[in-house]
Amino acid sequence: MPQASLIALLILVLVIPWRGAHAGIILAGVAFWIATEMVAPDRKEVSAQASITRTFNANVHVSNEQVNFDERLITAIVHNGSNARVYDVWLRCTFQVPQTQYKATDPSGKKEMISTDYHYSYIAPGVAEQVSLVLEPHGLLTRAHPSSFSCEPRYQYEAVDLFQAGG
Known about the structure:
The protein is of the alpha+beta class. It has helices at residues 2-15, 19-39, 43-53, 159-166, and strands at residues 60-68, 73-80, 86-98, 109-115, 127-134, 150-157. The strands form two sheets. A three-stranded antiparallel beta sheet has the order 1-2-5, with no helix packed on it. The protein has a three-stranded antiparallel beta sheet with strand order 4-3-6, with no helix packed on it.
């Protein structure tokens, strides 16, 4: 990339004969070259981050989901079986809503999805923590079967822990 931008800069300087435009074009070319050099990521750093990220063991799961419809709250136990701390945990849940069957072929229930607010604190590796999270507003939530709730965790992980675990 630096060679191409330098060649383009030289072409601009040599090809355009107008004196007033020369300074502006040269400054614009130099600014573009500096910007591309500053923005370009270091390839060695990117490959090191990718190799560390591959060592993350994404073994985080949820159990014992209990729903409180009056307070729009779900309580669950988040198990962190990974090799790094997780944070900003939120749940993506599915639930069944009964439907009226007008024909025998109509389904008896409809599957809906809902998300929760975040649990902002860290959950250490090997720890199971009970979290209570507020559910998003959803019109069909009051008609849901409480036993049909099934949740998957969504989270961020602390990459620094992977460096420490790796050596």
